[in-house]
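User: Can you recover a sequence for this backbone? Please restate the input before giving your answer.

Assistant: Of course. Working from this structure:
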């Protein structure tokens, strides 16, 4: 439903007018943006362990519909991290041990955003913008650092646990952000801002080794400092 609303808004602007001559119809560029990610859950027995720094990088494209409105898309490779603890039957050398697991998630996604970007008129060399849309993401890599405490005593650590099959392949999110575009040279624009990427799908696969809940409900969110260049 959220995707349909965004697409309907975009088509409304397409049909409402023609881009003015002073606005380039198409711009492209690159971004490298640090982020802070976390996991959110209401499932009993699963606890968030705080925010973890990550990063995203990618290619930006903007198609201007009117002077101050554009469709923003492209692709991002996003490293979204988070940390949780929960009760788990952990497999060590093909033997399951009940205990308590603290897992640092290191998830890598390919994200294709589709958003409406709204900008003010030029204020000297700057423009203020706001952005809203959807982020469709596909899991590229799923790794974790596991710290496991057995109920019977003893600990086990895996610095490079492969959890790709424990995480859902598809992720959908709502993107909201704002920032400033600064003209730093002819046809070169520096983009700086803040973006909140709010996941709204459960990222966890069903797993019988979870002790409290076979399929916990967990979403991952991140907030990033957007740094990019448009040409």
């Amino acid at each position: 439903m959220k995707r349909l609303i965004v697409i309907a808004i975009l088509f409304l602007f397409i049909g409402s007018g023609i881009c003015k001559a002073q606005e380039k119809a198409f711009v492209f560029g690159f971004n490298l943006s640090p982020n802070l990610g976390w996991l959110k859950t209401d499932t009993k027995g699963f606890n968030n362990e705080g925010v973890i720094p990550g990063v995203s990088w990618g290619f930006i494209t903007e198609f201007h519909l009117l002077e101050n409105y554009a469709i923003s898309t492209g692709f991002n490779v996003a490293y979204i991290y988070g940390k949780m603890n929960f009760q788990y039957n952990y497999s060590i050398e093909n033997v399951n041990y009940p205990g308590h697991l603290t897992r640092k998630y290191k998830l890598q996604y390919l994200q294709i955003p589709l958003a409406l970007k709204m900008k003010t008129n030029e204020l000297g060399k700057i423009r203020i913008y706001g952005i809203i849309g959807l982020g469709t993401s596909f899991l590229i890599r799923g790794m974790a650092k596991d710290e496991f405490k057995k109920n019977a005593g003893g600990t086990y650590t895996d610095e490079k646990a492969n959890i790709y099959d424990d995480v859902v392949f598809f992720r959908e999110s709502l993107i909201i952000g704002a920032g400033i575009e600064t003209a730093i040279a002819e046809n070169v624009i520096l983009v700086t801002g803040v973006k909140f990427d709010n996941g709204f799908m459960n990222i966890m696969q069903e797993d019988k080794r979870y002790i409290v809940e076979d399929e916990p409900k967990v979403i991952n969110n991140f907030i990033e400092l957007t740094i990019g260049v448009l040409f």
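That completes the design. The longest strand covers residues 95-119.
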